[in-house]
Amino acid sequence: MGPEQWERGGDARNVDRSAATSVSHKSARWLGLAALAAGVTLGLAQPLVVVFFGGVGVFAGPSFVGLFFMLCLASMILAGLAAAVAAAGRWATVPIVVMSLCLALGMVAGNLIAGGFRVGYAAARPSSSPQVPTGPAWSASGNMVTARRDHSATLLQDGKVLVAGGIDQAGRRLSSAELFDPATRTWSQTGRMVAASQGHRATLLHDGRVLVISSDGQDVQLYDPAAGTWKATAEMNSPRWAFSVTLLHDGRVLVAGGQDRATGRPLASAELYRPTGRWTSAASMGQRRFDHNATVLAGGQVLIAGGRSGSPQSDDLSPLASAELYDPSGDRWRPTGAMAAGRANAATTLLPDGRVLVVGGSPSDPTIQRYDPATKTWKSEGKLDGLLNGEAILLRDGRALVLDGFTGDLQLIDPDGLTRARDPVRTYHGTGATVTQLGDGRLLVAGGAEVFKREWSTSTQLYDPSGPGR
Question: 26, 199, 230, 382: least CB-packed within 10 angstroms?
């Protein structure tokens, strides 16, 4: 072979090697992209499984959630490395190995997801025997007729508890209602609501009827315990969201603030409902606000504190620290002392000494605050971590019981020393549960759902805050 032929042959061999390298690089890129797609798909699937199915079998619970998110992070990192190697066009075997790892993770996740479907749907069915609290302070109180959350629970004048509305495990709003009889610890159905409702506000009027205002203020209805029936009553002048409802000493009901139902704009306006079935306009607050708290003071005035004032256009949901007082006799508002930090959806209750206890509602300030009507000032004492929204109930012994609106757990606070009584009391009822103080001082815990496990329970429990160990 001559030099020219050898040179031409070498050029051909170089071209073949270049073509082979180009094909290898293209394959690497495609494999890298496939690895990236597999990792991203797995990464997106895992959080959805956690949210909707909340664990599989023995892996259910916080540890399982953490494992799933670790797999999510690992798969996305590996997929990103695969894409980077493929883009550089080197070593086709590297993205193949990485892609195999991603697919292996995908297979593991697939098995868990398949189990999640089975467990998820099984957990979505209402259960009459979920995990229940144990201890001398707890006792069973029968099963509700319907599993529900985001309902209302109202202590009637005859000692029974009216549970109304809410949503079921399929996400449907409920119009059904039922009664709990503490004497027999039994539940029975009563008349259906005029309109299905969830997240509504229920208020016991002085004449024994129950006024229910839907969460958007559009539907207003009355329950008559004597007849066991519901009927519609006059609509509000200005339907709204996220408003406060307060029963005044004279029997009227004050609705204040909120967000306009149509535009979402925060409102300063207020309305008064008369038991005769008529709404009248009241003086407007000095500050537009929603998600605030309202407490009737011993003298009959209403303390409005905190909330938010941002509009949907501003995206400013920072909580307010301001507060104001409403005087029903003169239909006027006036500002009062501001809290140390802004709070929204806080838990409040009137203490025996006339002061107001405010807990939670602030992601930055865990302190417990008390408002003194005599000095019109706030004082920060003690703290309670982790409570962003909830409800506070004054117990007969002067302590305050705080319900965590998300977990359903209970905490006891001694207002004198402002100390938390031991650890939170697990109710296992989850979000959307209700706690109602009965005539004998015991607490009825009903409804709710475990967010991650999707457990909807018909079971209810009674908690005695004066029981042993508390």
Answer: 26
Q: Name the residue among 211, 222, 261 with its Cα closest to residue 238.
A: 261
Distance (Å, rounded) from C-alpha 187 to C-alpha 185?
7
Task: Please answer whether residues 137 and 470 qualify as being in contact, where contact means their C-beta atoms are separated by less than 8 angstroms.
Answer: yes
φ, ψ for residue 369, nearest 5 deg:
-120, 150
Structure tokens at 43: 């990464």
Lookup: tokens for 385:
């971590």
The strands making up 302-305's β-sheet, listed across from edge to edge, are 293-296, 302-305, 323-327, 332-336
- Contact by Cβ (8 Å): 241, 250: no
Domain ranges of the chain: 3-124
N residues, the chain: 470
Per-residue burial over 13-37, b if 16 or more Cβ lie within 10 Å, else e, is eeeeeeeeeeeebeebbebbbbbbe
Place of tokens 């005087």: 327
Q: Which residue has the tokens 């609106």?
A: 405
CA dihedral (54, 58, 63, 68) in degrees, to 10, reads -60
Q: Are strands 244-247 and 240-241 parallel, antiparallel or unpaired?
A: unpaired
Torsion, CA 434, CA 435, CA 436, CA 441, rounded to 10: 170
d(CA 75, CA 98): 9
pTM: 0.73
Cα(274)–Cα(281) distance, rounded to whole angstroms?
Answer: 11
At 140, the amino acid letter reads: A
**Residues in CB range of 39: below 8 A, 6 or more apart:** 75, 76, 77, 78, 79, 80, 82, 102, 105
Please say whether the beta carbons of 290 and 307 come within 8 A: yes
331 vs 234, 239, 281, 284, CA distance in Å?
Answer: 21, 21, 10, 9
Q: Tokens for 2, please give them.
A: 């001559």
pLDDT in tens, the chain (470 residues): 554 444 444 444 444 444 444 445 555 556 556 655 665 565 555 545 444 433 333 333 333 444 555 555 565 566 666 656 555 555 445 555 555 555 555 545 544 443 433 333 333 444 444 455 555 588 889 899 999 999 999 999 999 999 999 999 888 999 999 999 999 999 999 999 999 999 999 999 999 999 999 999 999 999 999 999 999 999 999 999 999 999 999 999 999 999 999 998 999 999 999 999 999 999 999 999 999 999 999 999 999 999 999 876 666 788 999 999 999 999 999 999 999 999 998 989 999 999 999 988 887 778 889 999 999 999 988 777 666 677 888 988 888 888 876 666 778 888 775 555 444 565 656 788 899 999 999 999 898 887 555 667 788 889 888 765 44
